[in-house]
Amino acid sequence: MIPLVVRPEPQNHSLCEALRRAGHQPVATPLLTFAPGGELTRAPALLSRLGSRDYVIAVSAQAVKFADNALKSQGLSWPDSTYVAVGEATGKAFAAVGITNALVPDDPRSEGMIALSALQHPAGCQAVILRGDGGRHMMAPTLIQRGAQVNYCEVYRRCYREDHHGELVKQWQHQGVDSIIITSGGLLQHLFQLAANSAKDWLLSRLLIVPSIRVAEQAETLGFTHIINAKGASNTALISALDERKRNDRQ
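Above: the chain's sequence. Below: its structure in token form.
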């Protein structure tokens, strides 16, 4: 198959290499880069106040990386607290900076994190939620309701690639893109907005591989009709979903 891969680097390159090894012909077009967030400078102070009963919650691997750079710039270390990662990639990002015991829920969403047993009774504790701009607002209200003191910290912001003249979509059509691999709701929404009105039907008719039921539901609302939930954003999960469709097409 000829899947369009729009996730940011370096994950884009890694996924495309894995797709080629699996016999696919990916079209790499990263649509997203990251920059320091408006609250990144607050991160070291917020984290340094945490103790062993408190929580550090990261909603993406990028959140971990930007916060780690901010700590290192001031000669500080991560606190001795309980760490929670939204999913496997974020857990690996924590491990890469020395946090090897981060809790990772089976459900890689806010719903999965707040269902963790370690977050059921946070009364009297502090929690710092490391995130990017435009994140969901489910975690803090739930933790506050359970008695925690919560601080959001926007440590990075998303910078989406623009395509004012529709050249990208024309290239994808010319290259014969028959499927699209999406790894977040934000990327899906931006991709949808990039397609000019004349290309909407083409876009919506592509096979769409998504990482979760939440993004699948978002895709259905936008009008996509061929959607496969890979149940994860790892290379293995995404390629397995694409290969399953490829096998079914041959039968």
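The radius of gyration is 19 Å.
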